[in-house]
Amino acid sequence: MKSPLAPGVYRGSILLLTFLFYTSYHLSRKPISIVKSQLHRNCSELIPPAGLNISDNETWCDWVPFDQSNYKTLFGILDNCFLVAYAIGMFFSGIFGERLPLRYYLSFGMLMSGLFTCLFGLGYYWEIHSLLFYVMNGLMQTTGWPAVVACVGNWFGKGKRGFIMGVWNSHTSVGNILGSLIAGVYVSSAWGMSFIVPGLIIAATGVICFFFLVGPSLVEFSLCLLFAKLVSYTFLYWLPLYISNVVHFDAKDAGDLSTLFDVGGIVGGILAGLVSDYTGGRATTCCVMLLFAAPMLFLYNYIGHRSLGTTIGMLLLCGGLVNGPYALITTAVSADLGTHESLRGNSRALSTVTAIIDGTGSIGAALGPLFAGLISPSGWNNVFYMLISADILACLFLSRLVFKEVQGWCRSCVPQSRG
After folding, report:
1. For residue range 230-262, what is the model confidence (pLDDT) as tens digits?
2. Is 328 exposed, middle or buried, given 0-12, 13-18 or 19+ CB atoms closer than 10 A?
3. pLDDT of 183-221, one tens digit each?
4. Is 398 in contact with 329 (CB distance < 8 Å)?
5. On the CB side of 92, how many CA atoms lie within 13 Å of its CA?
6. Is 248 left (phi over 0), alpha (psi -120 to 50) or beta?
7. H/E element holding 111?
8. Which region, left, alpha or beta, applies to residue 379 given φ > 0 means left and ψ of -120 to 50 means alpha?
9. Domain ranges of the chain
């Protein structure tokens, strides 16, 4: 069955992501205009720190090399170094952008822009003053515009580009506004942070670009797996101890009984695959199983140890409902996204998508046992409340995709009029 996710979903995701990306580029350019007033000030109006001899020093509060009378000229040179580097780099940026994957090119550009923006701000703390940082930042900033325009241009026809790009282009002003506000927070106390914080923001946006410019649905499934895997791995590492503490079995029996959770996971994974193949609803299948998993976890904690039969049944049921979505997302969903037409035939996309989805899920796998260790001293009930909350969050991240799938089913059920 063809995916009911309309091309508009992908277009909207590309618009949103590229808007965010280029907002961060302009956000990181703005601080220098805010900080200039702090690099050369009227020191006579300021109170010097205790113990500082300023009898022959009227520029004690200024920053080298802007403590001289030619500071305005130096400001102009500083701006010019960035802009000339940007102008020269732009001629080469388009050439590289055509030959390199846009995701890698944009991610690299944002990470490097973040690095050099932070280095310029670290001059406040390290007293390192070099135009090289600003020149390199100018070169790295050229990676942004050609790449984001190419991303948007690939998804919108000529008939719609004018209006859409007119609205989308507001990222320039939004970035300038945010850059001014963020830099203004720190400029009077520690102007170095006026560069460091925007630098960290654009670097973080570069990480988002690397992981999520591959496919729009990738974000939701990755975050869903994070919480689903959190639950699964908490059971993997803590279930034998829970059985031993609550049911009072010895270590061997507790270990043997805990394997039933994985047995249920085998059945759940197969069932999830069959249902999603028949319905074409990968997200809906995962969401329904996770919705049932939440109350089952609650019941297992409260009544699952009343008898051996109840324990066996609840473990099989919980294992199937928890591990079914986990198995479906890491296999069929990864394959669907990695071979989706939106990736334009990228032969390496499948391995990349699989790595991104499972890598995000592995964060949850690491957090689950950690949280269990921190929470369990307050009682096992609280551990299960944490697991139930994770299941609900996993469902919420799939809600948009579930809505799209249900929409697709509803359209297919409505008879088409014959004209």
Report:
1. 999 999 898 888 888 888 888 888 888 889 999
2. buried
3. 999 888 888 899 999 999 999 999 888 777 755 767 778
4. no
5. 8
6. left
7. helix 102-126
8. left
9. 8-44+61-213, 216-413
Alpha carbon 60 to its chain's center: 44
Tokens of residue 46, six digits: 């300021």
Q: CATH topology for 8-44+61-213?
A: Growth Hormone; Chain: A; (1.20.1250)
- Residues of the chain short of pLDDT 70, as ranges, are 1-10, 44-62, 154-162, 214-215, 217, 337-352, 414-419
Of 231, 374, 398, 364, nearest to 300 by C-alpha is: 231
Tabulate helix, strand, coil % of the chain (nearest 5).
80, 0, 20
Domain 216-413 has CATH 2.40.50.100: no
Token duo for residue 233: 């791995």
CA distance 127 to 338: 48
Q: Quick one: tokens of 48? A: 């010097």
pTM: 0.59
CA dist 136 and 113 (Å) reads: 8
Residue found by looking up tokens 């993997």 in the block: 236
Angle between helices 193-212 and 171-186 (to 10 degrees): 140
pLDDT number for residue 177: 93
Residues 332 and 293: beta-carbon distance below 8 Å: no
Match 């409902």 to its residue by tokens. Answer: 321
Residue with the two structure tokens 């090399």: 65
Centroid of chain to Cα 293: 26
Q: Give the integer Cα–Cα distance in Å for 250 and 245.
A: 9
The burial class, CB within 10 Å (0-12 / 13-18 / 19+), for 307 is exposed
Whether residue 49 is preceded by a cis peptide bond, meaning omega within 30 degrees of 0, is no
8-44+61-213 and 216-413 share one fold? yes
pLDDT value, residue 8: 59
**Helices of type H across 47-70:** none
Closest CA relative to residue 235, chosen from 176, 275, 293: 293
Structure token digits, residue 254: 């507790």
